[in-house]
Design goal:
mainly alpha; 3-stranded parallel sheet; 9 helices; 3 strands; globular; binds thiamine diphosphate
């Protein structure tokens, strides 16, 4: 049976797909990642958790004109599969193969080469600043995980982004409540992460505490591959 993924060589191919098609495509992408990465090695969990974000961004935006900047880059496998690299996906992290991270030489849809966590927001500010200087209008998105958001560089980026007040600069928090291991530290415990995770329906502080406790313990059993 032919797959929807067979007809997706570029993000533009997503444009005509229905929500049901996109759901089916998400399943196919997960199957492809599991089949391939179980043979070559590579990252599972960050990618299996980033399929819907990838499809949502690529079906709404106009990449590579709009810039999607993946923090770390180890969650970019779904992005690779729909940006013309599916035929080389089986070579990921192999000698002479494609990278396990974003790489500009591989695709016009990759904009930075990272591996270190926390760099995406500052990079996105740079792209937004360059755009504004030349009078462009494209959207710039930094996609950053909750683990990487606790890094000093990400904090500096947020500080700078708020100060720079760039239009059309989005910081998308990919919050799976897990870093390379369970998140630790005061920022994770007490600042933005807890606030962001509190369901808006939890009006009272006691109920809010219960909601957070539930969501933390629910993810404690998640698995995460090494970065
Ligand atoms: C500066 C830096 N420190 C440590 C690491 C090791 N490392 C790789 S991935 C990762 C955590 C990623 O978690 P998160 O940002 O939440 O993204 P997710 O994998 O959950 O999508 C860490 C700490 C790194 N890549 N860079």
């Amino acid at each position: 049976m032919s797959k929807i993924l067979d007809g997706v060589n570029d993000p533009a191919d997503l444009k005509g797909l229905s929500i049901a098609d996109l759901n089916q495509l998400a399943t196919e992408i997960r199957e492809e990642i599991i089949d391939s990465i179980s043979k070559t090695g590579g990252h599972f969990a960050p990618n299996l958790g980033a399929v819907e974000i990838t499809l949502a961004l690529h079906s709404m935006l106009d990449s590579p004109r709009d810039k999607i900047i993946w923090d770390v880059g180890h969650q970019s496998y779904p992005h690779k599969l729909i940006t013309g690299r599916r035929h080389r996906f089986h070579t990921i992290k192999q000698l002479g193969g494609i990278s396990g991270y974003c790489k500009r030489a591989e695709s016009p849809h990759d904009h930075i080469e990272a591996g270190h966590g926390g760099t995406s927001i500052s990079a996105a500010i740079g792209y937004a600043r360059a755009r504004d200087l030349r009078g462009g209008s494209e959207t710039v998105v930094a996609v950053i995980g909750d683990g990487s958001l606790t890094t000093g560089l990400a904090q500096e980026g947020l500080n700078n982004a708020g100060h720079a007040k760039k239009s059309n600069l989005i910081v998308l928090l990919n919050d799976n409540q897990m870093s390379i291991a369970p998140n630790v530290g005061a920022l994770n415990e007490h600042a933005f992460n807890k606030a962001a995770r509190s369901p808006t329906t939890c009006g009272r502080s006691a109920r809010r505490r219960r909601c957070c406790t539930t969501s933390h313990s629910a993810t404690a059993s998640s698995t995460r591959s090494a970065g």
